[in-house]
Design brief:
By secondary structure, this protein is of the alpha/beta class. The chain contains 12 helices and 16 strands. It folds into 2 domains: 171 residues, CbiD-like (2-Layer Sandwich); 173 residues, no CATH class.
């Protein structure tokens, strides 16, 4: 069974919040079950997968079907104690043989959206199956095919019955993902959303840093930026603060409980919101102000025409592409985010550095430049 059963962030009343599984993890498990049945004639139930950080959860199947050159498996998503719109949805994977040399291809079935606008990590016309879930499914198929000495030439179609209605309650329509939900996840695990519990855990992390004499801590919005900033500065494990979207919760606590130096690391969109003054960076509670971002881009050196393109851009990523090679927009955002952080600290003795990273961990912009040889 799963090595990951419960959340590690207790609520203030002492009870635990149960973690769940992303749509990407469920799709991977369904895909592995389907390809295994197609090649062996038997569905593994439960079916185990390996998540990006090494956890090995097992999933029970709710649907099994096998036919000529195809197999289908379904799994009911358990989002744990997170109020996820896809909790209880059935994630279905259909695996079919491709022509020899056709490789592994991905397709959107019922309830899975299609990308219709630029600025997302997938090209227009692609099914809304994000890169990490694709990599997980590809790895699962390749491993099963290798065990059966079969070339990995298969199509994977992911379906979510009712997904189109679920998507109406997400940001997908605004982002140009039409027809259904996205298959998401970078770790495979859904961490239950509790503001008070998460902020409480941030506070405890600051306390641990102070108790252990940590003079320079890292607070990141996600795992990619954390890993990149950690490699840049060689932070020890105890210096890592799980800030997530709660920049305000961290900075307000540091105001009264200072650490000498803090590096804030995150993506361009998250820090564009912080730079504008948002303290909760979650997509459901704050949005990138594209009019403001266009004005900042103009100050950074973009032409009026390019700034107007940013104003009507679909996402912050698209805005970043418009500015690429023409203006240091990430550097400007890093500087403005740092100014906001310093203002929230209200004179507390904390040096602040802001590092803006791409989705692949490339350093895009930096302000403050503390704690490194080239600072």
């Amino acid at each position: 069974m799963s090595k990951v059963e419960r959340a590690d962030k207790p609520e203030e009343n002492g009870t635990s919040l149960r973690r769940g599984w992303t749509t990407g993890a469920c799709a991977t498990a369904a895909t592995k079950a389907a390809i295994t049945a197609l090649l062996s004639g038997q569905f593994p139930d439960p079916v185990s997968i390996t998540l990006p950080k090494g956890e090995t959860p097992a999933f029970s199947l709710t649907k099994e079907q096998i036919g000529d050159g195809m197999a289908t498996a379904g799994i009911v998503k358990d989002a744990g104690d997170d109020p996820d719109v896809t909790h209880g949805a059935t994630i279905i994977a259909k695996v079919q043989r491709n022509a020899p040399g056709g490789g592994i291809t991905f397709h959107a079935g019922e309830g899975v959206g299609m990308v219709t606008k630029a600025g997302l990590p997938l090209g227009m016309g692609e099914p809304a199956i994000n890169p990490v879930p694709r990599a997980m499914m590809r790895q699962a198929v390749e491993e099963v095919c290798a065990a059966h000495q079969v070339s990995p030439d298969f199509s994977i179609t992911i379906s979510v019955p009712g997904g189109e209605e679920m998507a109406r309650h997400t940001w997908n329509p605004r982002l140009g993902i039409l027809g259904g939900i996205s298959i998401l996840g970078t770790t495979g695990i859904v961490h239950p959303f509790s503001c008070s519990a998460w902020i409480h855990s941030i506070h405890r992390g600051v306390d641990v840093c102070r108790a252990n004499g940590i003079a320079h801590a890292l607070a990141a919005t996600g795992s990619t930026s954390e890993e990149a900033a950690r490699a840049f500065h060689d932070f020890p494990e105890e210096a890592l603060l799980d800030m997530g979207d709660f920049a305000g919760g961290l900075l307000k606590y540091l105001r009264a409980n200072p650490i000498p130096r803090i590096t804030l690391a995150g993506g361009f969109a998250k820090f564009a919101k912080l730079a504008k003054g948002a303290m909760d960076l979650h997509s459901g509670r704050s949005q990138v102000d594209m009019d403001w971002l266009a004005a900042i881009a103009g100050q950074a050196g973009l032409s009026l025409e390019e700034a107007d393109r940013i104003r009507t851009a679909n996402t912050a990523m698209e805005a970043l592409e418009i500015a690429k090679g023409k203006a240091d927009l990430p550097g400007m955002i890093a500087s403005l985010a740092r100014e906001q952080a310093i203002s929230i600290l209200r004179g507390a003795p904390v040096q602040v550095e802001v590092m803006v990273f791409s989705r692949t961990g490339q350093l895009l912009g930096r302000a403050g430049n503390i704690g490194h040889a080239d600072a």
